[in-house]
Design brief:
Shape: globular
Strand content: 5-15%
Largest sheet: 5 strands, parallel
Length: 326
């Protein structure tokens, strides 16, 4: 294997952290959000454990909403700004999220500018909604919820509904809601956090099979007819190898390494894709006439990805989350 070939492998979309695939959990996420919009609810909170792929899910959700409902105003916002002490910095960060070029002025000016920007966007797109996708919602404070309430009321006076879709890590997000309840802010919970849904981890064979099938059908480089699987295993591909057919072997390897029920606990996307990249890299170097991957190849990949540790951690986090107030 040449150094050039290794570099080409690293450049492959399967190794690009910005590549986001349409997974079964993301499809479910989209359908829930679509229904919320159709019935005119004010929003929904999705919670998930670490490594499940929350941020990537919101990225693809934004793409799906823009593609399938082009009249919607969709804004993706990250709650990391709660770490800053200045309310002006808060508004500046939000103005950046909505693409406003002017970040100078006092707090009132920044707030007014933000509200007008949202209303103007709704008018331009003739959208009855402004859909706000909030990542890292587990970092939100009381001030953030009060801000959302103000924006909601301002838009409502102009005939535009603010719909908030939050994505937060549990059990931390449950602690945020519990803190609001302790402060007597049930109105904020009712408006923005009443409906709670889980963004699930990969758990079922169809979750894995659908991803493997995308590797078998996605083409790269674009000017060729070479699929992702074919790129890594051209000889095996010509002999009939298809990654989708490896679904059962993958699950057999997971069952060997973990005593926990995969269907009940699931496994994180982060470690799953690490295992998949390990598998493809090893097979890329071993691909030869008459050579097909053995079942032990998945044992090696799952072990390399430390999938058993991740499943155990998810089970522990799930137990801790059960004791949190909802």
């Amino acid at each position: 294997m040449t150094a050039f070939a290794d570099l080409l492998t690293i450049d492959h979309p399967a190794f690009n952290r910005n590549t986001v695939l349409l997974t079964e959990p993301i499809k479910e996420l989209y359908q829930i959000v679509r229904h919320i919009l159709l019935v005119r609810e004010s929003g929904c909170c999705f919670t998930a454990q670490s490594g499940v792929g929350k941020t990537r899910a919101l990225v693809l959700l934004e793409h799906l909403l823009r593609d399938r409902m082009p009249e919607l105003v969709v804004i993706r916002h990250n709650s990391w700004n709660q770490q800053v002490s200045s309310i002006r910095a808060f508004f500046k960060h939000f103005l950046t999220a909505v693409g406003h070029p002017e970040l100078r002025g006092e707090t009132f000016d920044l707030r007014h500018r933000l509200v007008r920007r949202l209303i103007d966007l709704a008018r331009v797109y003739q959208s009855p909604f402004v859909v706000l996708l909030i990542d890292e919602a587990n970092a939100m404070r009381l001030e953030d919820f009060l801000f959302l309430k103000d924006i909601y009321n301002e838009l409502d006076r102009e005939g535009v509904q603010l719909v908030t879709i939050m994505m937060g890590q549990d059990p931390d997000f449950s602690d945020v809601i519990g803190h609001l309840r302790e402060m007597g802010k049930s109105d904020l919970i009712s408006r923005f956090a009443r409906r709670r849904q889980s963004f699930r981890a990969f758990s079922y064979k169809e979750d894995v099979a659908s991803i493997f099938a995308q590797y078998d059908s996605s083409v790269w480089p674009a000017e060729t007819s070479q699929t992702w699987t074919q790129f890594f295993m051209p000889t095996a591909w010509d002999a009939g190898f298809r990654l989708e057919n490896e679904t059962t072997r993958f699950f057999d390897a997971v069952k060997k390494c973990s005593p926990h029920s995969v269907h009940k606990v699931g496994f994180p996307a982060r470690q799953f894709f690490t295992a998949l990249r390990r598998y493809l890299t090893v097979q890329h170097h071993r691909d030869a006439p008459g050579v097909f991957p053995s079942s032990e190849a998945w044992d090696d990949a799952v072990d390399f990805a430390l999938l058993a540790d991740s499943i155990a951690e998810m089970k522990g986090e799930a137990k801790r989350a059960q004791g949190r107030p909802r």
